[in-house]
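does this look right to u?? iron/sulfur cluster version
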Amino acid sequence: MKRNDKDLSLAYADAEGKVWDFPDIEPGFRTGNRFARVDPDELIELPYGSYLFSLPGRYPVFYNSSAGDFSHIEISPDGDDITAVSAFLASAYLRTYLPAFIKKDDAPVLPLWAYAGVVVMDGAFHVPAVRIDDDIRSDPAIHENEGDLRAAIRDMAARYPRNRLVRQLARCSTRYRCLCARNFFLGRFEAPVPTTQACNARCTGCLSMQGDDSPFPPSQPRLDFAPTPDEIAAVILHHFDRAAAAVASFGQGCEGEPLLRAADLAAAIRLVREKTDEGTITLNTNGSLPDAVKALVDAGLDSIRVSLNSPTEEYYVRYHRPVNYSFQDVMRSLDIALAAGIFVSVNLFFLPGFTDAESEVEALCAFLKKFPVSMIQTRNLNMDPDYYFGRIGFEESDPIGIMNCIKILRGDFPGVRLGYYNPPVNAEAR
Ligand code: SF4
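got this back:
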């Protein structure tokens, strides 16, 4: 199917999960609970290191030009059963549309991945997405170095034989393929510093803990020990000693909420700052405990990143399911961090049709006027969109488009950086 002189074909998967193109059929895309056509100019080639997934129990949707509407397909040109396909984008790319599909009655809930639409255009896979951060720290192309990694892990294990955190990071970088943990061993960019087993939230999409009633497993197991301030400081000091513009971050996907160990983290930060002024110490957090945030700022924390699925309280509470803290506590933590003058980011989970819904964009602009943060980390929400909308009771409102949302943020809030990663801020902040 020609559009703007581009050859578009629908991508689908066969029973073995192999992906094919259905010639001369323009695929539909999705935003919120609506199907949409996407201008070929909004498509980019599938970024290197991205994955393609078949979506079980789902038929692909296409744009039926003769009916001027959307329909779905159940069989391939050869008459075989087919399923819809989605892309999971490499890091630093923000998707702008979801895959469009019709679900069978027995369709399973999809696991914790960020599903993006995909199309075959001029013979190559393309996706509706934009690169939102030029930082290369998690580019798959610089992580094809198993030999170097293994050698670095052996070397580190010999240097820190009793440091359990070094052993944990070795597991994370090999078994869970955590690119942050790999960067620690390779002495570059951001090192993850997981420290906490417990959490005071029950986020619907938690990557490290899912309840028995959850329809999907966690992506990786949670940390099973509590590193000491000495073990923590040793890892951070080692990284700051080697990496240029180094960042060390508390609050990783394999742990609970680090604010619950604020006293130990403050002790670790002091141990580091006694030895060096180098590097940026940052905290990824749910922002639940304002007094603990104050204690870490006083200890020398350089930057903080607070996670939100939405600036709207009701959607926040339905997604994050806070235990013994409130949305107001999170806002107070932001106030404390802003007042202290450290670098403050919001880790906002983006979902096309929700984040760019008129009501959400208005709420986000009001939020930024009240909390003038330094950065929004625009993260693709890793969840089955239908499951998410059901859990938060999403009331549809007209989506303005993710790219328009980005345009508004850049236009109305030029001081707010948009990106994907915790930047090195120490030099800038001090
Ligand atoms: S705050 Fe983090 S660790 Fe806690 S439930 Fe949410 S995602 Fe999981």
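The longest strand covers residues 6-13. idk if thats expected tbh
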